[in-house]
Amino acid sequence: MGKDKILIIEILIADILLMSATVALTFIGAKIYNPFWIGGFNNLPNLILLYDTSLLACNTLYPSIIHNRLVKIESVIQRSFTVSLLLLLLVSLLTSLLEAHEHFPRTYTLTTIGLFTFFSIIERIIISKLLKYFRRNKRNLTHVVLVGKENSMFELLNILSIPHYGYEVLGTFYEGTCDNEAYEKLHIGDSSQLYSFLASHTEINEVYGNFTNEQEDRVSMLSKYCDNHLIRFFIVPTANIFKGNVNFTMMDSIPVMARREEPLANPFNRVIKRLFDILFSAAIIILIFPWVFVIAAIIIKIQSPGPIFFKQDRTGIDGRIFKCLKFRTMKVNDDADEIQATEHDPRKYPFGNFMRKTNIDELPQFINVLLGDMSIVGPRPHMLKHTEEYSKIINHFMVRHLAKPGITGLAQVSGYRGETKHIDQMEGRIRMDIEYIENWTFLLDIKIICKTILNMFQKEENAY
After folding, report:
1. Beta bridge partners of 406
2. What is the pLDDT of residues 255-278, one digit of tens each?
3. Most buried residue among 114, 176, 404, 462 by CB atoms closer than 10 A?
């Protein structure tokens, strides 16, 4: 059995033990403080069996990815949230089937799975740190051979040489000379010497190769050898013509390279993000919006006659136009759809200026989120005039419309908020928006929201 498979089993056992301990902990707590929480489930071993079996089923659908060598911790944590959500649904279903509905242990179920989620994330972070430590110290290594000498192979060597990824490159094989010093130091010989090297080094796990179209026979022969000797074989493209994140997909039997990876193109990720948007915005609208609306409406009417809300056409996902809502922060004027707000803008009135600095003016946009026009986090929606202007002069500008616009975004918490006086400021904003689209995780959304809340209590240079 391979090292990684053993590791997967060990992590699964740790998860089951953690789940059993969490079930027991909440069961004892419920017995002490409120036995009604557990309803008719008074048998602890049966409860542990129910939760552990459910966890095994969820892990079958979404197994742990913590053992993957190049995985980001954000993706690991997102997988933990995914498993916990499925666990909640499965346990709720099984519980309702096993016990009468009036005895459904809702508080116990939510508490148990909530604690397990928290503990499992801590467990994943600890495991990640331990794996990096072991791999830096030459343990849990994957042994690799590289074939070919294109630039893509040099870049691959740089990645595989990062100690905490746990790769050890045993040699490189290519014809002729090589002008990359690090790659040349590992040179064993040409392709004719490759098979004898593989035969004498049975610890080799993976072979990565770059080949020309004329080397189809060589690829076929090497692939067969690797298959027959339990070595994983990977072909490295000659060049990444897009010079950035890409995504490979299959169109029947033909591999297709997408311009960029879009995590939100995954339906499950969209469901998670949309569910969070609905719950979060509904909570804001129910708990905070009513009393803020009353106070804001009174002051707005006193300081600046006119409507309470400012409605403006903005560009949304896929270029669709929607009405973006805000508390009105300026006097009624004819330039609202043409000119950005500036630091000492005479159109602003005192309370409007305060709302802009504290982000209170954005509060009505939670209604846009509930309606599905916006998300809590995403690229900020621009007025139509700016979309038309900047799309003509900034490359990739329209890419930001591949995602729903957000009340806050990565660009805004990275210093690209407010007025864009110079073209490089808008280019920086677009760069951050695209980075968000290509690297979205649920954890990234949480980080951006937390930083936005923190910024509300700090003076932001461009908040005007």
Report:
1. 375
2. 677 777 788 888 888 888 999 999
3. 404
- Backbone phi and psi for residue 337, each to the nearest 5 degrees, phi listed first: -90, 5
> Mind listing the pLDDT tens digit for each residue in 189-245?
988 899 999 999 999 999 999 888 788 888 899 999 999 888 999 988 876 666 666
Please tell me the distance from the alpha carbon of residue 384 to that of residue 314, in angstroms, as a whole number. 6
Name residue 383's beta-bridge partners: 314
pLDDT in tens, 110-148: 899 999 999 999 999 999 999 999 999 988 889 999 999
List pLDDT tens digits, range 157-181.
999 999 999 999 999 999 888 889 9
Reported pTM:
0.71
> Which bin fits 418, alpha (ψ -120 to 50), beta or left (φ > 0)?
left
Q: Which domains does the chain have, with CATH numbers?
A: 3-136 (no CATH), 142-239 (3.40.50.720), 267-456 (no CATH)
- Residues paired with 258 in a beta bridge: 247
The first and second tokens of residue 242, run together, are: 């897009």
